[in-house]
Amino acid sequence: MWFAPKQIRTAALKKLVQNNRNRVEKELATILLGAMEQFDTDEINLCPLDALQLLNRTRIRTDLTQLRRLLKRDWKLENKDNSLSYQKPVIWQDASMQLVDAKGRYFTVEKSFLLEYFDEMMTD
Q1: CB atoms near residue 96 (< 10 Å)
Q2: Above 80 in pLDDT, residue 13?
């Protein structure tokens, strides 16, 4: 390449990349940011199955394979080595959200990560 990636990364390019994310990724980020604001926390723990159940409450349809790929490859998150207890977000029928005790090999999504990559998209 003629130019280093740092030289061509502009605010316009960053905005273009953010807006080209798929709908599953955008919706999951929106739900997780909403949960973090509601429960006043800086991180949310969830398994791919938890994310699937959250997205099933919306009109977005996906499968576990896509969610695992999203969390591991696209968001570059590491899941826990052992099955541990954690609190997962659950959306009830009346659209209220609550944290429920669960056990599994969960991923930890931090608020700073979501704000860095999705905040521009949320405020448009």
Answers
A1: 9
A2: no
pLDDT digits (tens, 9 = 90+) for 41-67: 999 999 999 999 999 988 888 999 999
3-state secondary structure 32-96: HHHHHHHHCCCEEEECHHHHHHHHHCCCCCCCHHHHHHHHHHHCCCCECCCCEEEEEEEECCCCC
Q: How far apart are CA 64 and CA 116, in angstroms?
A: 25
Share the mean pLDDT of the chain. Answer: 87
Structure-token match 């959306």, residue found: 91
Query: Angle between the 11-19 and 111-123 helix axes, to the nearest 10 degrees?
Result: 90
Which among 61, 83, 74, 79 is positioned nearest to 113, based on CA atoms?
74
| DSSP H or E segment with residue 17 | helix 11-19
Tell me the pLDDT tens digit for each residue of 96-120: 899 999 999 999 999 999 998 886 5
